[in-house]
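Escalation from tier 1.

The customer reports that the assembly of two entities below gives different structure tokens on two consecutive runs. Tier 1 could not reproduce it. I'm attaching the input and our single run for tier 2 to review.
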Amino acid sequence: GENVEQHPSTLSVQEGDSAVIKCTYSDSASNYFPWYKQELGKRPQLIIDIRSNVGEKKDQRIAVTLNKTAKHFSLHITETQPEDSAVYFCAASSSFQKLVFGTGTRLLVSP
Amino acid sequence: EPEVTQTPSHQVTQMGQEVILRCVPISNHLYFYWYRQILGQKVEFLVSFYNNEISEKSEIFDDQFSVERPDGSNFTLKIRSTKLEDSAMYFCASSAHRGGKNIQYFGAGTRLSVL
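Tier 1 run:
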């Protein structure tokens, strides 16, 4: 079955810096890759997603890139703000099935 | 904006007791899921449900677990005889599979504490 690896487990940046979180997946059949943000004690919230027929997608300060050949995808956050502090999970899915989540990255943005 | 709602927000139970966690998916969604998250760990898939039947389940979802859609709006997860290791946050999710994307929306979760 699918296995998703995520790095780093923690990431500390200064406000205004960029943050990059990387994930790899194992199942070449996976074709949908969402990113969720989870604040402490709250539900995971979708922040951006990408399908396998697209290499990059951007939404304001957030972008996701996908390399299907290498089976990895990354989340890029530019101009980070303290409110970006949270745990970020990548996930992979194939054929409208379950989401397989990565282990999460705790992002801390210091003012 | 429509949301997935879950009740209760926190459930405390004794080991061996049965619990039912309730979810109301977004009204026009057809695919329903249960996930769990042990404190400090990643979100793990339990079961998916479509067209009134289980479409996939994980190894975690053993005979102690069951799901039901008793009416047109509720989606429940039952744990027959809870164990200490069932303590976790349980999330319900639903999706509509639009545009070829399996966009899953999560409820706020039920924190299950087994004593």
